Amino acid sequence: MYGNHFKSKLLLKYALSYILMFLIPLSFVTMFIYENAVNSLRTEIEQSNVNQLNQVKMTIDDRMSELQEIASKISYDEHLTPYMVRHPYYGLEAISTLASYKANSSILEDLFLYFHNDTIIYSYRGLSDLNVAFGKIYQYENWSKDDVLRDLNESKQPLIRPVENVTVNSRKEPLLTLLVPIKPNDPFPNGTVVYLMSEAKLTGVMDTILNDFSGSSYIFSETGEVLTTNNRGVDLPPEVLTTLSSLKPGIHSMDLAGEQHSVVSVKSDHNNWTYVTTMPSYQFFSKVAHIQTLILMVFCIAVLSGIIAAMILAKRQYHPIRDLIEFAKLRGNGNNTDISKTRNEWDWIKQTIQDYSTTIDSQEPFVRNQCLLLLLKHGKPDDPEIEQMITNAGLEFPHGQGLYFSVILAWDEMIDNEENRQVRYHLQEMLGEFEFPDLNAHIYGVEFSTTDQFALMVSLPAEDNDNVQERVEQVIEAIKVIAVDNFQLIPYIGVGTVYNDLAGLNQSFIEAATAMENRMMGSSGRVTYFEHLSEITSSTAETFWIPKKSMLKLEQSLKQGNEAVADQTISSIINVIKEASLPISLLRCICFDLLNSLLRTASELGVNEVFRDISSYTSFESLEELEIKLTSMTSYICQQVERNTESEQPSLIDNIVAYVDLQFADYTLSLEHVALKYSVSISYLSRSFKEKIGCNFSQYIWHRRMDEVIRLLINTNAPLQEIIESVGYLDVPNFIRKFKKETGYTPGQYRKLHALESSAPQEKE
């Protein structure tokens, strides 16, 4: 069975649904954790960049402040006045003073002091001609001698030049140049201090920002010029740099040169310089590669575990469905729809339930008739399952709140012809299940073995027990009206006593049969009530006799073979005799009259064996002893009546068996079909068939078909499917499965085996 699990679409759907149920949330959670880890790292790195940029800004601001302070000191230093620097003696002291100022700043490569309109410029190394200093010693790529002279003489505010390559003694160095007029903040400065700074020393403090990341660091002037760059990646075009210089302080995500970057910007309040770092965003993901690997491993393990758990859960959920299917197949006698022809097992179960429902609906009248026959003959049984069937058939009011009685319909035998038989059939069909809404009466009818008689069970709600007889008469009158209005046929009607429990329905049935048998002859349509039978008794006022209706009921129960009703009737008659307090002589006459009634009925029924022990029945010393003997006699009589009734049926079963032997290849052949054809109930046919043949109807048909298939396999070369279909079996795969289960071989193997066996004797000959 488990091998077939993997062929099941439903099991696959269950497994996929469970896998999706945990895989989708797991995927979202995994993505969330991964994205959160990346974002956390990105935020951490970006915040670190902000902090480091602020440190760089503060460091450079401090250095620029130092340079401003040095320029201020130089402007007020008495050793560095125009007179002192030009003096032959004090000039040396001025040079020494400049050297000390230069030594106070670690980022300075050189320091110059220039006084306006002078051709000499002073440094810590001495003095030199302006043209020599900026024409030969320091040769700028983009700062000509004329520009140098103009800027030195005309600058009134500090001037910073971007880093550019400067040739120093035939060696190019990237230098940053700062011009600070002196005195600072003086509208009419008389000189300029020139600072030369190495780019490496200035950008060295920015190297720690990028660490192991690729990217770039920039310092922009107040006007947006790039003062210095520390680049570890692709050079950005000027327009992009212009955009970066105008960014507001903070963290930005930008597309630079076709690639997503994380950009951090801070701005100095001291000199309005802007400090910017750019990093490609993909590096954040590479930094969490170990986390990515760990998450992927955990995800794969969770997926594998989830798939295993999903398969286990799917099999657990599927197992009851599979059991239900196997149970339905076993109960279905091979006539179930092939699962492969349906979308999945649920559709197969739905189709099977619909088929069963159709079968149940078609058999509901038969079930109701069998329950009704059971109630009429034996009363309500003490069996919960049968009680439930009776309730489901609608034969009993809920909670026992009902009144029940039996009615028997019979017709005039003098007008028995085909037309009247058709009319009676339609009337019986109508009264098989009928309702009088105005009277709250439900009627269920069934034909029983007595020729041309139809039994009805009438149920009324237990509303008004004072007018029960009136309600009964209204129902009987309504039945007569139906017969007259629809069929112009008035039957004889026998009515039993009303009981408040279904257990008394068999009593009412015997009473109705008694009333019918003792109906007053006259015009067609005479209704006879069992309760009114006392009106036709011939007893006198001076003499006690057993009630006529009790005697008639006893005789009828014996004729019906109903031992339970017969025993109850005898018991009630004995009680009546006891209460009468009769003289001994009359009492014995009454007792012998009762005994004589039983013997007469036995003789009429052909049960003559009771006369062999008649002496034992006539000798009794008390009414209790008489009751025991009479009960024993009724038991024997009823048993004989049952046997006689059953012995009349073998010829019917023989005819049915012969019919089945001829028609077993008809795929429409069924128990219901045969029961309908021979006008017997399904349960009676099933029971009688099994008692006669030794197996049930379905098994008998199966064996007949098996025998025919085996015969055709051995004696013909017809195709297997043709053989199976020729015996009335349309589900070939199911037949093969059952054939193998019974014989141990498939039909094909069976044919080959017997072909070899038949060829072996020929070879010996």
UniProtKB/TrEMBL annotation:
Transmembrane spans: 12-34, 294-314
- The identity of this protein, by name, is AraC family transcriptional regulator
Ranges where the HTH araC/xylS-type domain occurs? 654-753
Instruction: Give one Pfam family, short name only.
Output: HTH_18
Q: Does the keyword Transcription apply?
A: yes
Family annotation (PROSITE patterns):
HTH_ARAC_FAMILY_1 (PS00041), HTH_ARAC_FAMILY_2 (PS01124)
InterPro entries per the UniProt record, alphabetical: Homeodomain-like_sf, HTH_AraC, HTH_AraC-typ_CS
Q: Which GO terms describe its molecular function?
A: DNA-binding transcription factor activity; sequence-specific DNA binding
This protein's UniProt keywords: DNA-binding, Membrane, Transcription, Transcription regulation, Transmembrane, Transmembrane helix
